[in-house]
């Protein structure tokens, strides 16, 4: 057995479950654990949906959270959807989200994290961690990305990777991230396909500019419609409604000594 495999087994033995959301109570998402972003301003990405707190866009049913994007007018938008934010925030850990994704051109589901406080300034200075993104025009390609002021998508310098996954819209897969002080690993179904690592040589000038990931972040679950990425090939109105189903969210303490 390779040395790094032994290290991964040891790390898993040290993990402790500190948050688990199994979505076992039907109705609205648990208000003690989740809150909503609401509005239709484009969200900085020219997105076309209006996020609501309506049950038609986000509900718990049959042991799953169901976020649904719909073709319907709301305010000045032509689509509605939901974006849920965890009320709790964490610094480091393993984050597991078991989900089934929507399909169709124009859908842009995401499982991601943002900083609780903008300690280093507005986006992207304080960072963003994308555990899973999927754009409908490139079906089956899962993306993971880390953003900072030095490495982010508008400068085309983001640290990112992708993996092809079968049956993303018909089967559930576990999208996971293990976040440590100087390294962040990304997985699908326990297969690691991307590691973002702090490089003290390349990024020695001001660490926060390349690695602002030393503050608590909260979790976000959403489906965007269209947008600067999701809408690059247009929006197929015939596909709606489309849903992302989340079976569970689990957060583990990694047993770090740092």
TrEMBL record:
GO terms for biological process: carbohydrate metabolic process. Its EC number is 3.2.1.73. Signal peptide: none annotated. Pfam families: Glyco_hydro_16. Residues 7-257 form the GH16 domain. Gene3D superfamilies: 2.60.120.200. Keywords: Glycosidase, Hydrolase. Belongs to the glycosyl hydrolase 16 family. InterPro entries: Beta-glucanase-like, ConA-like_dom_sf, Glycosyl_Hydrlase_16. It comes from Clostridium beijerinckii (Clostridium MP). It is an enzyme of class 3 (hydrolase). The keyword Kinase does not apply. GO terms for molecular function: licheninase activity. This is Beta-glucanase. The gene is bglA_1.
């Amino acid at each position: 057995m390779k040395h790094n495999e032994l290290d991964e087994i040891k790390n898993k033995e040290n993990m402790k479950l500190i948050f688990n959301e199994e979505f076992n109570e039907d109705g609205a998402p648990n208000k003690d654990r989740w809150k909503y972003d609401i509005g239709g301003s484009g969200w900085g990405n020219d997105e076309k949906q209006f996020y609501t707190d309506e049950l038609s866009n986000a509900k718990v049913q049959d042991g799953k959270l169901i976020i649904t994007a719909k073709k319907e007018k709301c305010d000045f938008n032509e689509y509605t959807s939901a974006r849920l934010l965890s009320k709790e925030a964490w610094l480091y850990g393993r984050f597991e989200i078991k989900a089934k994704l929507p399909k169709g051109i124009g859908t842009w589901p995401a499982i991601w994290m943002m900083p609780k406080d903008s300690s280093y300034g507005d986006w992207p200075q304080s960072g963003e961690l994308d555990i899973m993104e999927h754009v409908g025009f490139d079906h089956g390609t899962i993306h993971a990305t880390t953003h900072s002021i030095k490495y982010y998508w508008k400068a085309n310098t983001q640290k990112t990777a992708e993996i092809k996954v079968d049956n993303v819209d018909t089967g559930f897969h576990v999208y996971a991230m293990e976040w440590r002080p100087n390294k962040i690993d990304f997985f699908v179904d326990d297969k690691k396909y991307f590691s973002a690592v702090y490089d003290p040589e390349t990024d020695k000038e001001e660490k926060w500019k390349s690695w602002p990931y030393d503050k608590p972040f909260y979790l976000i679950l959403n489906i965007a419609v269209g947008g600067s990425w999701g809408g690059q090939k247009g929006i197929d109105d015939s596909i709606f409604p489309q849903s992302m189903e989340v079976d569970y969210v689990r957060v583990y303490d990694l047993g770090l000594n740092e």
